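agent> step 3/5: call structure_predict on target 'Oxidoreductase' (Rufibacter hautae).
agent> reason: downstream docking stage needs a structural representation; sequence fetched in step 2, passing through unchanged.
tool.input:
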Amino acid sequence: MEQTSIAIVGGGLSGTLTAIHLLRAARTPTTVYLIEKEARKLHRGVAYSSSLPFQPLNVPAARMTLFPEVPDHFVDWLREHQTSYASQLPTPVTQEAFIPRCIFGDYVEDCLASAEAKACEGVKLVRVNQEVISLEQKSGGPSFVVSLTTGSWLMVQKVVLALGNLPPADIPISNRAFYGCSLYKASPWSPEILDELPLQAPLLLLGSSLTMVDLVGSLIKKGHQGKIYVVSRHGLLPQAHQVDTVPYPLAPVRLQNPLSPLKAMRLLRKEIRKAAQEGYSWHSVVDALRDSLSGIWQNFTLQEKKQFLRHVKPYWEIHRHRMPLASSLMLQQLQEKGQLVVKAASLVDLYSNGRVAQVKIRERHSAETHMLEVGMVINCTGPLCDYTKSQDPLIQHLQEQGMIQADELKMGITATKEGNILNAAGLPVENLFTIGPPMKGMLYESTALREIRQQAASLASLLLFGETMLAAAL
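tool.output (status=ok):
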């Protein structure tokens, strides 16, 4: 019987979930290579490998199961392992609890170990702690040669690029030399950031998303007393979760008729008003719309997508990607006492005199600039999405070879909705797939667990049986 071989490049949430579903579904001899260059990110990626002291999930425990057919899987796992995390978990664990990210990482790792132990005979997982530097497609026999930094290589039939989120990009400024100094931190996820910062020092966080919220929480947990400036273009903070959100019975969104971003927002506001009369909050309506988002996005023209990104996205994102209520209250208290200052402004330039960073900003709707002095600048702008600007050797290699290309909006790479990658000529690359964040330009909603777990299950079915779970159900 022929052996199936699949290489998953990237061992974070997307890659690990794909491996889990392959191990659970394979019935004939199959070798799954899970390749991750950074050991600490294996099974965790960036989001769930952080050891910073305040890093809760931004979704209640009840919604974080890896297996939607078993809704309480994560909560039951937490209760089973309660004693191992006595100082980190509430007693008892509730479905509404916001659990530390690192514990969710342990859960993902445990689920993979369970899938590996229960896999059919001849189905095996091989963990590879190396960096992939190139990918070469072969005709006949195994489809790809996966080259590693050590000079070794793997021959496999199929490849999944589970690349996750790319590191943040530096904001364009004139004095780019500043980015090489010790007063700038390109990544907000490094634990040493907090160790290097004096407790009284003022600092600047670039970006006001959930990443910023997590970092502020960690700073306060560590006893930081200095002023914290947050600068983002719109100065908008994520909205808070409502603990008692009730599912809203939203009628299916009809996509037969053209639905522009403006019309979509009008319909959403109308639905929220209707829901309020029936006792539902806007949170319920936004959550109910989630299953239709990819269809709505794909129905937009290219120009409409650009309009959405420019005019709607900042407001949509703060309602869609919400923070725990406790985090919202923390930010509110810090703002009230003047320790946290949020500015709607653009970064103009950065300078250093060796001791402090001098920050030139231009506030929104103003032509004037003014200066801030801080002890450190931390990039919290979120992941780079434009693959043409990536410094990753593999991504650069694949683009040079024409095997992948950035999508028109520079939000990810081009692929079919099933994840089959399209080359520079716009043609599907046989047996080369992607999952998760690289699909954002195609699906828009493609970075959260809910979407990734669905993609992983469908992709595993496609890799093993040549059809997605959706197609099999029809």
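agent> step 4/5: record observation. The two ends are 29 Å apart (CA to CA).
agent> proceeding.
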